[in-house]
Amino acid sequence: MTHWQPKPLLFAHGFYICILLSWYFFENAWAALDHTAFFFFNGLLDTSYDWQYYWAIANKRAFDVVPATLMLSVFFLYILGKQRTEVRKRIAQMMVIGIFSLIVLTFSKKVLDFDRHSPSLELEPVHRITLLVPDVDTKDSSKDSFPGEHTMTLSVWVFLFWYFAGWRFGLVALSFGIIFSIPRLVAGAHWLTDDIIGGIGVAGLASCWLICTPALGFLLQKFDPIAGWLGRTFRLSKET
Based on the number of CB atoms within 10 Å of its own CB, is 218 exposed (0-12), middle (13-18) or buried (19 or more)? Predict the structure, then answer.
């Protein structure tokens, strides 16, 4: 975790470049996928008012507290696992994921802000949550939908948590990531490619830069004293 790993880093860049090239040279195929995904997910709004109300609530900014709470709960289960002597290290890992997610999101807002209208503004017919459930202040459109920042943040958590905790915890995080990425697609606030290429792709590339360089060891070392203090203060660790 403290040295350069050029091979996986180069592979990640090569793979992402191939995805970008395919998006450019096979634009019609990707567009067909985008359109199909939009009409499928947005069609889920053509159901009962209870489901429409749920999707409206799920697209509110305040609802982000729900996936964040669930992710943190799973991480605490990981921290308080059988190997209590690793509590300090695992707390530091959790802090790294949180800070790095913030860094990636900030980078996205500053650098990857493209002028791309969401499908709810481009395609017809469309079910608009804001019209179906007018009493809920929610979001169902965007004039800069790329990249899918919500999916990007969730993906950073999934990639890094899988790396730290292993595939069992990783699968739980992945299920949460998929479930809580769907509301934006249902609302039509993002194209599927916003999430696949912009969200998951950028998150994967950024995570590789953390994992495959000395940056991860550096951050873990910096957070280690704080993690130790938290472990002792809340009596989570057997360490003294």
Answer: middle
Quick check: is 84 in a domain? Answer: yes
Phi, psi of 32, deg, nearest 5? -60, -40
Half-sphere exposure of 165 (CA within 13 A, CB side): 30
Helix or strand holding residue 35 (H, E): helix 27-42
Query: What is the b/e burial string over 144-164, where b = at least 16 CB atoms within 10 angstroms of the residue's CB?
Result: ebbbbbbbbbbbbbbbbbbbb
pLDDT digits 0-9 by tens, 107-124: 888 887 778 999 999 999
pLDDT (tens digit per residue) in 17-52: 999 999 999 999 999 999 999 999 999 999 899 999
CATH number at residue 173: 1.20.144
Asked if residue 1 belongs to a domain, the reply is no
pTM: 0.92
Q: What's the rounded Cα separation, in Å, for the pair 193 and 33? A: 8
Total structural domains within the chain: 1
Residue of 168, 155, 186, 175 lying closest to 70 (CA atoms): 175
With CA atoms as reference, report the closest residue to 152 among 121, 95, 116, 190: 190
- Rounded Cα distance between 102 and 142, Å, is 21
In this structure, which amino acid lies at residue 18? C
Q: How far apart are CA 23 and CA 123, in angstroms?
A: 20
- The H or E element that residue 89 is part of is helix 87-111
DSSP secondary structure, 201-220, as one string: HHHHHHHHHHHTSTHHHHHH
Locate 62 and state its tokens. 């305040």
C-alpha angle 42-47-50 in degrees, rounded to nearest 5: 110
